[in-house]
Design brief:
The chain has about 300 residues and is mainly alpha-helical. About 75% of the residues lie in helices and about 5% in strands. The chain is built from ten helices and five strands, in the order ββααβαααββααααα. It has helices at about 25-55, 60-90, 95-130, 135, 140-170, 185-190, 195-230, 235-265, 275-300, 300-310, and strands spanning about 10, 15, 95, 170, 175. The strands form two sheets. A three-stranded mixed sheet has the order 3-2-5. α8 (about 235-265) runs antiparallel to α9 (about 275-300) and α9 crosses α10.
């Protein structure tokens, strides 16, 4: 193993530089990021309050929406406060272990969000394609089991990436992280040792989670569309399709941003770093901001209870 002459042995503190190339305007970039974060926190909190307080919403679909809200709150809170500390208050330092913790939370809850989207797609598949069996299949016990399995799956998949960084790397080229949050590849690229195992494992986790979830989500919606278009009445088709439109919007924006961020980071050698970092940050910020707006606008039951709550 060869280690360059300029290395740092097991740094205790790292420095997040923010968005390389846009340091002079980071304070302005922080404003829309802060607004999106506040809207995400308020919107998801309102969703959780409504779903918890209204017994008529204690159904699998709304429980999954609530789980998505919790995931979005954790994701946003994992990155935005530190990001704004860098942009506005010039506090770029972060302890190495805290950086690993932030990385673990971000990637774990990204994977959990993907798993919840899969569960929601399966719920809609059963509700539309097998409506008479929906209540018997999607019981509260099954929903709890799905939540436990998704959380356990993603925690077990992400944990080895933290262990590989902590245990394999002792020497680093630098203590400066060229990012505005602790992202797996940004930390791996700092190491002065062989990083091939870490890169391979990162790709394995990405393709295992996104590949598995995306395939089954796509198959579910294909079957849903086939069933919907076979319905004899136009009103029935519109009603069935309307119950899925919010999920489709959330699903599309999540995976489009995810794949753009993933491929530009690994294969976009000619893409400026600030473009990748902006999109990877938006990938984490847009779903928490976007999801409560979509479900509040497109889900009639949630919209009715939200209006009632605001008027009261």
């Amino acid at each position: 193993m060869s280690v360059s002459n300029i290395t740092v042995f097991m740094p205790s503190v790292l420095t997040l530089i923010g968005i390389p190339g846009l340091e002079t305007v980071q304070c302005w970039i922080g404003i829309p990021f802060c607004i999106m974060y506040l809207i995400a926190m308020i919107g998801n909190s309102l969703l959780l309050i409504i779903i918890r307080s209204e017994r008529s919403l204690h159904e699998p679909m709304y429980i999954f929406v609530g789980m998505l809200g919790v995931t979005d709150i954790v994701l946003g809170t994992s990155i935005v406060p530190k990001m704004l500390g860098i942009f506005w208050f010039h506090v770029p330092e972060i302890y190495f272990d805290s950086c690993l913790l932030q990385m673990g939370l971000i990637h774990t809850f990204q994977c959990i969000e993907s798993g919840i989207l899969l569960a929601m797609a399966l719920d809609r598949y059963v509700a539309i394609c097998h409506p008479l069996r929906h209540a018997a299949i999607f019981t509260h016990r099954l929903v709890s089991q799905i939540a436990a399995v998704v959380t356990l799956r993603d925690a077990l998949l992400v944990a080895p990436s933290l262990v590989l960084i902590k245990c394999r790397f002792q020497f680093y080229h630098t203590t400066i992280v060229s990012h505005c949050y602790c992202e797996h590849m940004a930390i791996v690229k700092m190491a002065a040792e062989n990083v091939r195992v870490n890169k391979i494992y990162g790709l394995f986790v990405a393709f295992t989670v996104a590949g598995f979830d995306l395939i089954f989500i796509t198959l579910s919606y294909i079957q849903i569309f086939i069933t919907v278009f076979r319905l004899p009445q136009k009103e029935a088709r519109l009603k069935a399709f309307n119950t899925c439109i919010a999920h489709i919007c959330v699903f599309l924006q999540f995976y489009i941003l995810a794949f753009f961020s993933f491929f530009t980071h690994r294969f976009g050698a000619h893409v400026p770093p600030y473009i990748h970092i902006l999109f990877s940050s938006l990938y984490l910020l847009v779903p928490p901001f976007f999801n409560p707006l979509v479900y509040g606008a497109k889900t009639k039951q949630i919209r009715i209870h939200l209006i009632k709550m605001l008027y009261s």
